[in-house]
Amino acid sequence: MKYRTLGQGLDVSAIGIGCMPMVHGGNINYGGDATQEQGVATIHRAIDLGITFFDTAEIYGPFQNEELVGEAIRGKRDSLVIATKFGFRFEGSQITGVDSSPANIRRACEGSLKRLGIDTIDLYYQHRVDPNVPIEETVGAMAELVKEGKVRHLGLSEAGAQTIRRAHAVHPITALQSEYSLWERGVEDEILPICEELGIGFVPYSPLGRGFLTGQIKSRDDLPEDDWRRNDPRYSEENFGANLAIVDAIRAVAERKGVSLAQIALAWLIAQGPHVVPIPGVKRRATLEDSAKAAEVELSASDLDDLDAAVPPGAAQGPRYREQGMRMVRL
């Protein structure tokens, strides 16, 4: 495994792991449930492969994904970078809205520490910007957790350009996590340049288009009835066929290189800058092992040109979220 440095000198593996799909019977289902044993075994295999960067969140499950990660890293904590997120209000296990008030941040942090079984969260993200709380107030509360030793580094997720700048002025931001992939390039014009200017690492989530870019999903019929992606506009009946052209473009390069489509999609992201660290979501060891190999794939200038020409910004048909989800990004 190769390694990279996010902002503020935080060293991580060049490929991280999004643990969200490992939820069993939770609120977000991708391709059927994973068992607890399967998720733990996958994390253990990732550690064996040299992966050090693991991403979870209070909202996944909710709560149970952090518990799974906590079980998996018990006795293996050293050298790992554990990232989690806050930013929502709950009534029991029901999510009732965003909340980045200082009181909710502290509640969330204490809960995450307990579920993860750790003393310090390595990278703590605001999951979504709360339009009702000034970002300066939110980051100020996050900075207090750093002073107390409960958090090492601060991050934002899906924040807009000016929010990033204002947040960084209060306390250095180590990483921004946002959706970025060959079919979602909206961060390239403004967000990536600001991260580079301020020395903030960039962590693409859904780097494989929620599995679409792997070429393994040939039609909507391949998705279970309760699969979250059936609500994804890019997986809709009207957009699915058109978006297969993106998969064909990736396949052309993958066949030339003799690697998987997933490895090409991830290697393309890694090639976008030394501070870019994708976190593909996995739950099975076979998928993990395939994605991990992307760190070794070298794309030539010709490969990159071919992909850029075939899949320019805006190539994907349909928005990346439904209307409610789109109202929560780039704030």
From TrEMBL:
User: What UniProt keywords apply to this chain's record, in alphabetical order?
Assistant: Oxidoreductase
Q: Does the keyword Ribosomal protein apply?
A: no
Q: Name one GO molecular function term.
A: oxidoreductase activity
This protein's GO CC annotations:
cytoplasm
Residue ranges of every copy of the NADP-dependent oxidoreductase domain listed in the record? 32-310
Q: Which domain of life is it from?
A: Bacteria
Known InterPro entries for this protein? AKR, Aldo-Keto_reductase, NAD(P)_OxRdtase_dom_sf, NADP_OxRdtase_dom
Determine if Membrane is one of this entry's keywords: no
Q: Which residues cross the membrane?
A: none
Entry protein name: Putative aldo/keto reductase
Q: Which organism is it from?
A: Sphingomonas changbaiensis NBRC 104936
